[in-house]
């Protein structure tokens, strides 16, 4: 039995040592590889976010109608009308083809609607007709809709330049607009986002990159986030041209009286351009790069282009008409959902970086120790029964009369065949029994004499 156990120990020992070394190596080198895979943006993204307009600080707007929007029906009236409204934006973002281990194609569709308008102090709910842009009624509730497609690097979240296009006229069969010089982040930040990192946000409305700066650390829905903020300069939307023509609705010519410009003839036609800017606030989970909360403040106004004639009247030069002003922030349900996504990613990264390596290292050390111990037992099978006794020394240890026996060799001992040789017969012959009679001596009788 001892011999069998020693042989088994000699087999199991190296296996345990190999397994222990493998676990320790995996514990040391594995986290960098596994965590690297987990920190890339996953390909199963399919999220829906909802943002609603909120009151801007120091604003006198009604809390129920915190935004402003030009009444398109007033185009045919004598004067421009800007309504107090509420605005809701819904966005669905998912990953589509082509996507691989290093790049991904993201498709995001957004619709911005006006669910309610303040009319004579009461809310009015416009209809969403779903008609194409040039046939929509003037009181349609749809403000803007767009479909964005962009290829992103799965590690950095930055555009790769392979695919970058957007459709700004939903329902029409017009081709998508190619977007060049797209550098800003939009749907995901890189894992390991830092306070001092240099990041940009890409704004689809102005098709420009907005520089971001770190503001503060803040806990949002139970998740520690980094707050980044970006303030954009005004962009003349008429300069963003498609097919060498200004985008529809970015240049408008109306009488001065319609604009409400004083100091000039009300019948004089005044051509103004549509300007826009987007101020950005993002709350980002630094571990996973998930955007937990988002606020986009869209502002648009009609005013003169950047270069005007020297003889332009001052009232015209100074005139500005706000035609859209809405600060859109994600609703609580969206924030909670994004926070859960961030926490799930955090847990996976933590397991790969810390829990698995520690567990693997401990198990590796245990296996290594057991393997060394097994080899030690396999190389010293006689230590349990005493030197030179082997396994049989233990069996005979309790008998004082039994003669010691030599340990058995692997091969049985055979008696050589002497072949009848007289020279060897004398040594191999069995001794004859002693048949002589012996007398017992009684020492007691001898002493009596």
TrEMBL record:
Residues 394-403 have a biased composition (Low complexity). Pfam families: PorA (PF11271). The chain crosses the membrane at residues 12-34, 354-377. It comes from the Bacteria. Keywords: Membrane, Transmembrane, Transmembrane helix. InterPro entries: PorA. Residues 385-449 are annotated as: Disordered. This is DUF3068 domain-containing protein. It comes from Tsukamurella tyrosinosolvens. The lineage of its organism: Bacteria, Bacillati, Actinomycetota, Actinomycetes, Mycobacteriales.
